[in-house]
């Protein structure tokens, strides 16, 4: 066997070593080993490397997958790591080590931290973003909101994941209008605020977004697929991944995927430049340690794969911005939604946010 | 407000009525209502219709979503129903009623039960399928296995979800070879066994699969995206949805999506003709009632959307086939993998399976 992908699982079971073997087989051959031909057993069967039992906690199991099983595709890597086992209980993916060759073969981020900073013209300070919402606003209303936030000094105006092709602001009407409004604001400020519409992941919407003047797109891999991140990256511009519909994997401590592996490592390898996740202290359940682990997984050295930007959101506020900057550091996209719309003057609120983070 | 999508959630919370309002807002505006413009509040805000508290059980909450919020897209429908809330605990989608207009606008199955039966030439009996596996076999080995199963009388030879573009049997080498082997077997038997390779959801692989002689494809919406089902349907042939990587939604009883809503209603509306799920008594955790509810959701009347085929799998056996036929009825794809390879004669095992179900 050549190089291996090492996946670390927490396994909750009476006999974790036996269960570990079942996981290795399920996630590679999905066939009792005695029925597989010799060449497949030799080349493509996953193996349990170690089982560490821990009193009162799930056992820690490392499984080696022959690297070729991933086929160089992010979607297949996910099928491999947790596809079928996601339908069983008691198995949680908590760490992952991919060989350098696979890291190079996977799409990865096209821009990463440095590329996003170059686009928005901010070489070192924290990056500020908002979500254009709510759905139900007209294209003109959304364009006004984007303009105000760009004039106020935000770097990224992303659309809310709830925006699609609804009648109030159809995609082909909305995207050029908002792009134009942001472009005019940039001309006024001399800044380079980036507008990122939500796309469904098809080539058609990607092309239209960039032709309309968007500087990137919002992709929802939970519904659009993980390959959509790479397609968006190939189309050019900033790729922002939104966690909508991915929460099934983070809901249970004895199941799914640790948030840092999912929102950090896996989305980075699949091609996100910016990974949105719900930060602690807002409306969602991740704690401080989990959030900082996501940020670390997004940025730490990974076989030459560019570091990417964690984007904590989910009920953040201007008042908390200094605390969050202190915790996450400046290579972060701080995503603040509702709090910018309080008081009815998003431009001024954006300025206050920028001031709070200087 | 016009027509509404009625979503029923089980909500586990101290004050379920208050939590229900938070869910309705999170899943539509994602913004405190007092900050939204009047036109959005009027047209696009979701509303709690009823809250039924039940002693010792989660409250049952019905939320009405203005139908236009889904934008006629399956991916956006999922974002709407559970996107952000999937990242919180205590909310489970357990039923769904879409208006006729939305059912018609969503892709839906192109073939459904009748169309799949027409392709495989089996007007009324139970449909029999196997998974070509394990990964690691060469294209020639997989072609031999497919041929044997077709000669033995199976209707559908689907690839295992673990097959992708790996070096042992690269996609562009494997698909034409297996298609050719099945075609030769069909010529010999006079049957019409269908071969369904796994595709990554891109137009390129879809086109190649059908040009190579496949009669359909396996799509993994959990990684390829839900829009991939509709793209596959538009390309022609049978669309089989595989549940890999969707298990996050079924792992916890207080979270996620009830299996019948996910594997039945939602995948049917998104365009699956056949929906694979792990049946009871195998290696996975769904119970008998959940499995039969999936089958019912796949086939029951739904505003003129064609009924589709439930495909129970996940450790099924020839011995259990009569019991399963009795439970699921004939409008079912019985998916049996390893048990056909036991004994080293898949053709004969397929014949025994066919005989057991006659």
Automatic annotation (TrEMBL), chains A, B:
Organism superkingdom: Bacteria
Stored Pfam families: RuBisCO_large (PF00016)
One Gene Ontology MF term: ribulose-bisphosphate carboxylase activity
Ribulose bisphosphate carboxylase large subunit C-terminal domain segment(s): 113-337
InterPro entries: RuBisCO (IPR033966), RuBisCO_lsu_C (IPR000685), RuBisCO_lsu_C_sf (IPR036376), RuBisCO_lsu_N_sf (IPR036422)
Gene Ontology biological process: carbon fixation
Record protein name field: Ribulose-bisphosphate carboxylase
Source organism per UniProt: Virgisporangium aliadipatigenens
